[in-house]
Design a protein that fits this description.
Layout: H1 3-37, H2 50-61, H3 73-85, H4 89-115, H5 118-129, H6 133-137, H7 144-163, H8 169-187, H9 193-210, H10 217-229, H11 231-248, H12 251-257, H13 263-278, H14 310-326, H15 331-345, H16 361-375, E1 381-382, E2 385-386, H17 387-406
Amino acid sequence: MTEDSFAQHTRNERERESRRTWLTALALAVAALTIFLWGINKPQSVFYDEVIYVDSAKAFLAGGATNAEVPPLGKLLIAAGIKTFGDNALGWRVMGSFFGALTIAGVFVWVYLLVHDYALASTAAILALLNNFLYVMSRVAMMDIFLVGFLIWGLVAFTMLLEMDELSVTQRRMLLAASGAMFGFACACKWNGVDTLGVVILIATGLLWGAKRSKNEAILRHGRNLRQAGIVPSLLGLLVVPVVAYSATYWPLCHSLHRSFSLGELVTMNVSIWRLHRADLGNPGIASKWYSWIFQVGPQRALSYLVGNWVIMWGGLLALGFCIRRMFNFLPEAFVVALYGGNLLQWAITPQKYLYYYYYFPAAMFLGVAIPVALHRLPHRIFGVRLSVICVAAAGCVFLYCLPQMAHLEAPFDCALTCWP
């Protein structure tokens, strides 16, 4: 085989691999959307915090003021669902299901970029689906699923920049801008998106610094790819673009309220959000300490009996232990450790009086990613059975045990496997 024919063969293999990856991501998204939409009209009335955001979305459609508790993008997305499907349970929740499906696809693509293993990327996507958090939050009209969906795709764009050696300078800069925009949109759903953006900025800084001092080939390659995009474009993509994207989401709201889209208005609206979160708002009866979420066993009954899949929550912590040992030498391990830690530990310093278990959602998603990342450098089989299959089977059993309550099934199906104590 000549050098030219070998190069062509390599390009053809990469193209086939890319097509398979994106077609699989699409298939996973369609399957997940079907699962999330099944029975989404139960309950048929708003519950938990849905009333806050559904009322805000309807107020926006009517040209009135929305609640100032969070930035506007998530409420605008709910409004789009109501505009398309009507003022009913489907209209309130359909955009959450759509973003849940996008999150599943994003997890698959992201993990494939990290470990270059199709089976482990598929494992990560299935574990995301079985996580319980994703299932519940994809079926309620709340902000968190929009936050997580944008965060995952921001990570996809940034990781493509680092992992794909054949990209041009222009393509790398476009990926930086896309990543920054996704993080800005995440923050425009909930301010918590800034934690993941901060982790990405930290990793980017570490790669640029380490690329000049490290002898680790992976760090050198990632740093070289990031440096190829340019220092100034990197600063613009990760610092300026998120702010611009975040600010742009206020334009529809200002237009609806007939208020000027100006710096003064943006400052006023965001100060209102800050003051509301500093106030003593919330329900102390269902509040909990952030560190209690890690080993929580009982469900948050008012929110579709939400409790993290015990196999993924505790297996993910064990996987994090393996990742911590390698986090300074390998990008996948560094990502999952930093992202889990950043999204959990932020609640130790967040100036908010009452915290709730569902705030664990973003961090819990990275526990599901930690498992396949850890398995990537561990023996793949035990007694002839793939460890990933064992993890998925065990997580699937717990998911099915929780499903009747999470899906709001009626008797006798609500106790099809067993009733909650």
